[in-house]
TrEMBL record:
It comes from Nocardia bhagyanarayanae. InterPro entries: AB_hydrolase_1 (IPR000073), AB_hydrolase_fold (IPR029058), Sec-Metab_Biosynth_Hydrolase (IPR052897). This is Pimeloyl-ACP methyl ester carboxylesterase. Pfam families: Abhydrolase_6. Residues 7-220 form the AB hydrolase-1 domain. One of its GO terms (molecular function) is catalytic activity.
Length: 232
């Protein structure tokens, strides 16, 4: 197997693989060529973990999983495959066994909780007129507008899907906290990060969309994980 890692990026709720656009460009600038971005259906944690595992299994070599938001729950569930060498969490859920993103959010409701609304088909949306202030207050109006209009709504039931065997208990991990996050309470992020005992925690003065507003700092953390794993 090749020693050079494949970085697999896993998006969260209300977005798709394209949310990683700035991170992908920055990773390529720094010489990372083995890049994948999963497009998850957001229909259940089991479905999303299965889709992510499929992509991991296509890689002949070490994989570093990077999850944003709910994507953190996905990499927690899917990261048990033997070629996964590490987990990087970006303003993300990191549930323990039996925990769900919804349960964690209820314990410390995020500031923008009331801006999430269901539709008649059981999908949850961030109100378009509240998207920027809720998800991406540190992005430009144009960038936030595109995210708001192209948001990918999850099935509401996905919030209640619990992790079975958290991969962070057996894999090295790194965590980025967004101190101005309105979609996951920053203290919830700190609590999840601290109990993981990751190799590093960084805090950024950023919104939930830190992957788009602070891509350089996110790539710094990914790059440090690669070095720490001896894969650079």
């Amino acid at each position: 197997m090749s020693a050079e890692p494949t970085i697999v990026l896993v998006h969260g709720f209300w977005g798709g693989a394209a949310h990683w656009g700035k991170v992908i460009v920055e990773l390529r600038k720094r010489g990372f060529v083995n890049l994948r971005a999963v497009e998850n259906p957001l229909t259940s944690l089991a479905d999303d973990a299965a889709r992510t595992r499929q992509m991991i299994e296509q890689v002949d070599g070490p994989v570093l999983l990077v999850g944003h938001s709910y994507g953190g729950a996905v990499i927690t569930e899917a990261g048990d495959l033997p070629n996964v060498v590490g987990l990087v969490y970006v303003a993300a859920f990191a549930p323990d066994a039996g925990e769900s993103p919804g349960q964690i959010s209820q314990e410390l409701p995020p500031a923008a909780f009331d801006n999430i609304a269901p539709d008649s088909d059981g999908y949850l949306w961030i109100r378009q007129d509240k998207f920027q202030e809720s998800f991406a207050q540190d992005l430009s109006d144009d960038e936030a507008l595109v995210m708001a209009v192209t948001q990918k709504a999850p099935l509401a039931s996905t919030f209640g899907d619990a992790v079975t065997a958290p991969a962070w208990k057996n894999k090295p991990s790194w965590y980025q906290v967004s101190t101005a996050d309105r979609m996951i309470d920053p203290d919830n992020e700190r609590r999840m990060a601290e109990r993981m005992k990751p190799r590093k925690i960084i805090e950024l003065d950023a919104s939930h969309a830190s992957l788009a507003s602070r891509p350089g700092a996110i790539v710094d953390l990914i790059e440090e994980a690669v070095r720490d794993l001896g894969l650079s």
